[in-house]
Every structure is written in structure tokens, then in C-alpha cells.
Amino acid sequence: MIGIAMLSLNQPAWAACERELKALEAAQGEAVVGAFTKLSTCDGGKAGEAFPAAVKRSGDVVALTNLAVAAIGVGQDAAVHGMLELVPDYAAREETARAIGGKCVEDAKVEAFVVGLHDALKDRAFVGWAGALRACPSEALTAKLEDLAAAPPDRAFDDKYATVVELYARKRGAAALPVLKDAGIGATGGGPFVIVVDAMSKAVTPEGIGGEPAPADRDALVAALGELAGATTNADELRRLANAMVAVDAAQAAGALLPKLYPDRVQSDGSFLYGVVATETCEDASVVHWAVVEDHGKRWSVSEALDGPVQGFKHKLKCGAAWAVQVTPEPVASEDEIGNWAEGLVGEGGKLKAEKTIVLK
To answer: 0.85 exceeded by the pTM?
Structure first.
């Protein structure tokens, strides 16, 4: 008799949850949100199990966002973590992630959800939620990203870390440079050095095509890159830093890295040697004019400075065609290297003509 009585008492609650479950299974669009909330109140476990199906029936971004917020509100964070993979349209995924992230200021539980994404998810899943982190202006999130950015992993590429430093750079702008610079120092010699340098550039460059950093931000970037250069002797890393400088019209700062990049090619007077050839052709004939270039100005690229001197070479063929000019891509150790390089560019039947040394101050 006692067992029968207990069954009778339990049956209404069980039946009510079944009714809520069936209501959720029948709901479409925005109605899914209310039905899910009612089922969660009745039985959180069943609501979690039913969440993937609810996502597929939610329809548009607004309904998906409201469903996610409702689920987060009743502690179903784990279920929400996987919801983006259930949305077949990639644009809708991104829009949904951004919309959820945009709720983080007005809803403390959503803020905690967004801040916790890094710790809760593995690489690919975390990257998929980048839109939510990008859209959330929470100071707690920015502080979390700063802590993560300051601790680079020991491998050259890491999806999660690449996402973290880009988000941090965009959120903090030029103010992110000190943290990123220190992270770059920690990433030298096999860590995500390239990722950090790219993030430093993004920190000062407005998003969109053709964006250029403000002068003060540019100067701050170049200074930070210069400090980072002082922490490495790796040639590839130094070239990456120089290229980042050149990209913001700081070729002079890039040139200052040449002695460190090519210590064995610095001449006794501190200059660098390059080779230049200018080839003239006329019918089947060709003449390769070549010259040694002494650069005393530590230019990252000498090509532009050679336009005038090369035009001063005298034509040896009657056609007077335009020169085809080539420059050694980097400094060389000796004049002999330049002569051998030029000789190798002479085609069959061509002639070699040595020109006077070009001195660039």
C-alpha cells in the first residue's frame, strides 16, 4: 500500500515534465525559448539532453541567441558550448556568437560564460566562439585575455593562443604592446613568435582595408619591435620584425637591424656591400653592366636608391632599350661574390661590363 501511495505522489511531477518535454519538441522558432525554460525548471537533466534538438528548431539568430541566454541562465553552459556546431550556416554561427557575447554586460551569467570559454573548450571549439569574445566589452574578459596573452605556449603555432592575442590586441589597441612585447620575448626560439608580432601590428592598425596606424601608435609599435629585436639573434625572427617595421613605413628602423642580422657581412668601415646589374639587349646581343654598391646608410632595401646611378650607365648597344635591373636580395660578404653573381647572369653570346662602384651615403 505504501509503495502504491508513493507512486501516486510521484506521478504528477513526472507527467508534468513529460508534458514540458513534448511542448518543447513541438515548439518552433521563438516559442522554443519559453518551452525550454519551462522544461529546465521542471527537469534540468532532460532540458540538457533536449537542447541540441531545440537549437535546430530555433530558426533565426534572435531565437538562437535567446535560447542560449536562457540555457546559460539555468546553468546549462556545457550544452551551449556545443550549439554553434549545430548551426549549419557559418554566417549565422558568427552572428549568433556575436549576439551572445553582446549580452555579457547586461547579464552576469553570460559574462561568466564568455570569460570561461577559454578554459572550457579545446582549440577548434574555442576559435568558433571568437565572435562572442570579440563582442563582449567586459573588463573581466579583457583581464583574462591579458593573462593568457602574457603566457605564450612553447610551440610555434597554437590556434587558441593566436585567437587570444588577436582579441587582446584589438581590444586594447596600442596599450596592448607592452604585454605583447614581453610575450614575444618569451616566444623566441621556437614559440609563437610570428603570431605575437602579427598581433602587435594589428594592435595599432585599424580594421578594414587600407587602415593605417596613428603616428603615435606607429612609433610605439616600432619601439616595441626594436626592443623585441634586442632579445633574439634568430635570423628568421629578425627578418619578421624588420618586415613588420617596413609595413608601417619604418624602413630606417628595419635597416638598423642589418648588423645583427648579417654580422659577418659588415665591412671594416661599417658599410654593407650589394651587387647591381643592369642588362641591355638589342636583337640577339646583350650586355650585363654590373657594379659594387657600398651602402653606408644601412638601408633595408637599396633598390630605390639605385635608380639614378644605374641610369648613368652608358649604353653599349644601338637599341638603347630600357635597363632590366637586378639587385642582390641581401648584403654580401665580398666584391668577389658580386662579380661571380653577375657573371652567372650573362646569357649565351652576352658580354659583361664592369661599372664604377656606387657609393650610397
So the answer is: yes
